[in-house]
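> example.struct
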């Protein structure tokens, strides 16, 4: 697998299913951020290698599994709000809901094609540099396969209350933060056609990607 494919796989880890057992809320609340990333990464790679339908890009199955396995570990509202930028504050509740739905579908469809590239990759998580009182951290990991290793970083925040624990809200692949990349794209559409224009553009892009591996 060449470096570009490894990078696409790295990004897919945020939008890919983890088929291993879902942590209980109590476990999730106590789990350290680096332990969370290590567990999810190992489960994801094992799941992809074991499931031919995921490797073939079965979007419906991938999306259903993302909803049940990955989304509990992601602050997707924060991720979407950051990608949309200042316009998020003016969006109605319905617009926000539709933006989240379309953005999630976009991520899954964009990176589902990378799942078919999985063969002998391994993931290592680097020692966490953080204090016990930190509420936001960066967990650094590395994907190794054929060719040069890929550096992959996750931004996580510690959330209180029900479902407490560490949640992913951004991802850095090959030196580029995922949310930042989409923010610049979304800003152009919002400036030209507003929030509804962005929703429409995302829906059309998702429709165009239906049944197509990226």
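> example.seq
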């Amino acid at each position: 697998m060449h470096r570009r494919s490894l990078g696409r796989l790295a990004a897919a880890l945020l939008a890919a299913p983890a088929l291993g057992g879902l942590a209980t809320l109590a476990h999730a609340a106590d789990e350290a951020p680096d332990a969370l990333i290590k567990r999810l990464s190992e489960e994801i790679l094992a799941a992809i290698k074991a499931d031919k339908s995921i490797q073939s890009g079965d979007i419906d199955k991938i999306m259903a599994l993302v909803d049940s396995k990955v989304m509990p570990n992601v602050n997707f509202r924060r991720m979407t709000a950051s990608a949309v930028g200042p316009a998020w504050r003016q969006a109605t509740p319905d617009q926000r809901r539709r933006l989240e739905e379309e953005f999630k579908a976009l991520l899954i469809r964009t990176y589902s094609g990378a799942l078919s590239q999985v063969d002998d990759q391994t993931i290592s998580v680097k020692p966490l540099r953080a204090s016990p009182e930190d509420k936001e951290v960066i967990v650094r990991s590395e994907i190794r396969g054929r060719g040069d290793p890929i550096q992959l970083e996750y931004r996580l925040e510690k959330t209180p209350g029900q479902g407490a624990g560490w949640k992913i809200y951004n991802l850095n692949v090959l030196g580029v933060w995922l949310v930042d990349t989409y923010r610049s794209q979304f800003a152009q559409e919002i400036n030209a056609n507003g929030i509804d224009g962005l929703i429409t553009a995302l829906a059309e892009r998702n429709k165009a990607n239906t049944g197509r591996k990226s």
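> remarks
The CA atoms of residues 33 and 166 lie 6 Å apart.
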